[in-house]
Amino acid sequence: MQFFGGSEISPSPPLPTASGNNGHMMYVFNRNGICLLYREWNRPLHTLNAHQDHKLMFGLLFSLKSLTAKMDPTSVDKGNLGVPQLPGQGCSFHSFRTNTYKLSFMESPSGIKIILVTHPRTGDLRESLKYIYNLYVEYVVKNPLYTPGTLIRCDLLDSTLDQPSENGVFDGSAGACRI
Amino acid sequence: MAAIYSLYIINKSGGLIFYKDYGSAGRMDTNDSLRLASLWHSMHAISQQLSPVSGCSGIELLEADTFDLHCFQSLTGTKFFVVSEPGTQHMDGLLKHIYELFEGSCCLVGAMKFPLESVPGYGFTRGSP
Fold this sequence. Notes:
The structure holds 2 protein chains of 2 kinds. In chain A, 27% of the residues lie in helices and 17% in strands. Chain A is an alpha+beta fold. The longest helix of chain A is centred in the middle third of the chain and has 22 residues, at 50-71. Chain B has 2 helices and 5 strands; from the N terminus they run E-E-H-E-E-E-H. Chain B has helices at 30-49, 91-107, and strands at 4-10, 16-21, 59-64, 68-73, 79-84. In chain B, strands 2-1-5-4-3 form a 5-stranded antiparallel β-sheet. By secondary structure, chain B is of the alpha+beta class. At the A-B interface, helix 1 and strand 3 of A face helix 1 and strand 3 of B. Strand 3 of chain A pairs antiparallel with strand 3 (59-64) of chain B, so a sheet runs across the interface.
């Protein structure tokens, strides 16, 4: 998986655009399935309670990764279905679309999974996901008071994520500006 | 030229009823294709539960690093999905065309033949006119 593609060490945030907020929800999971962050901006329908929703989301991603690794038409030797894949091992998906939403997914080499659920006609959000991962690294990982594996409580992160119209996070635009 | 790697048709219970490989690097044996088909059926259903708005009908397009998976679900619950090269166009039209061929040749005639057995969902008896 091309996680470190590009020449910059920390990818720059996308250019601000005039388009509004496309984002419905965002999840961040660690490699053990613990939901570190869940943000919701526009979700009229809640099918399950929060805990079950997180477990279902993580389970769906785990199974989809297993499915894409097995279904990969370009690799000759694939593992068995259901075997947990290491981050970066095997083919992984980066998004799927239904008629009502689009889910964009990124997994870091350390197993941190970032999920964005947006409007179905959103473009490619891989750059935005890398940007969010960078925010996670800067505001959470480098925070000496944060214990890995626990819920993220960071006002700076929340306020940055809540300004998508300024940062253009949810419309897939790419550009250059300072973090 | 963009290529199609394989085609799957699954019935409304999630059982694989047709699988054809058109050129992937590693061929899958029958058991694996059966497992993948039922796994896809389950993932398709779960994706509807995670929708933020009502009216979700399941995954239509899955984009991975080395392939795209396009899925079409008919009103009867039969799912047609095709594994293709990333960025292949007009797969929706192709799937609908396959659906028309499938419905025309297999269901309306009344006698159905599938490579794999067990079609309890359709209510036809084999050999009926």
